[in-house]
């Protein structure tokens, strides 16, 4: 099992990669790095919120548990 600091670094590098990727896609679509960055940040924020909601909903579903 990974140590906690390794898990944290992996999560941060994954998030950074996602932000760079979404900024690039946003730039390709809009032609603006600023707009692309805004899209990336908004997407990351929405992703965090929806992940938490998704997890809380699934925590209440008994299907597939022993």
Question: Which terms summarize this structure?
Answer:
2 helices, about 0% strand, about 70 residues, flat, mainly alpha, single chain
Describe the structure.
With 66 residues, the chain is mainly alpha-helical. The protein has one domain (4-59). The longest helix is centred in the N-terminal third of the chain and has 27 residues, at 4-30. The two termini are 24 Å apart. The mean pLDDT is 94. The chain has helices at 4-30, 33-59. It is flat, with a radius of gyration of 16 Å.
Based on helices, strands and strand pairing, what is the structural class? mainly alpha
Return the string of H and E elements.
HH
Radius of gyration, CA atoms, in whole angstroms: 16 Å
Number of strands: 0
Mean pLDDT across all amino acids: 94
Envelope shape: flat
* Main sheet record: none
- First CA to last CA: what distance? 24 Å
Count of separate DSSP helical elements? 2
Could you name the ranges where pLDDT drops below 50 across 5 or more consecutive residues? none
Helix content: over 70%
How many domain regions?
Answer: 1
Strand content: under 5%
